[in-house]
Amino acid sequence: MKKLYGYKNTTSSAGRGVEYEIEQTDVDAIMCWFNFYGNPSYVFHMSNGDTYLLVDDYGAMNDINHLSRDCVKLKKDMFCKW
Questions:
Q1: How distant, in Å, are the alpha carbons of 20, 22, 82 from that of 3?
Q2: Residue 57 near residue 1, CB atoms below 8 Å
Q3: Rounded Cα–Cα distance for residues 13 and 23 (Å)
Q4: How does 43-54 read in b/e, with b if 16+ C-beta sit within 10 Å?
Q5: Model confidence over 21-64: pLDDT tens digits?
Q6: For residues 50 and 43, what is the distance between their CA atoms, to the nearest angstrom?
Q7: Which residues 6+ apart lie within 8 Å of 31 measured at CB?
Q8: Of the candidates 71, 26, 73, 34, which has an alpha carbon nearest to the alpha carbon of residue 52?
Q9: DSSP assignment, residue 26?
Q10: How many CA atoms lie within 13 A of 61 on its CB side?
């Protein structure tokens, strides 16, 4: 189990992220987008259809920079599972 802080099943990052536990083997895809300042945001696409949005503010807390991911140019493309 991996703990992460983010937003479940939403494209909005309003408010503070919530702590979730996920099974790493349930992750189908990870999409990444970098904002104007170079800070990353991630979307985890899970095998059960759930998505987790992890905003750049929590990147260090989530310790996910080493994970394999597909980077996209547009933020909205993070939510498309390719």
A1: 6, 7, 25
A2: no
A3: 22
A4: bbbbeeeebbbb
A5: 999 899 999 999 988 888 888 899 999 999 999 886 555 567 77
A6: 10
A7: 42, 43, 45, 69, 70, 71, 72, 77, 78, 79, 80, 81
A8: 26
A9: G
A10: 14
Sole residue written with tokens 């999409």:
31
- Token readout for 29 is 């895809």
User: For residue 38, what are the contacts with CB-CB under 8 A and spacing of at least 6?
Assistant: none
Q: Looking at per-residue confidence, does 16 or 73 come out higher?
A: 73
The residues, any chain, with a CB within 8 Å of residue 63's CB and separated by 6 or more, are none
Helix (H, G, I), strand (E, B) or coil at 37: coil
Token pair listed for 4:
């992460």
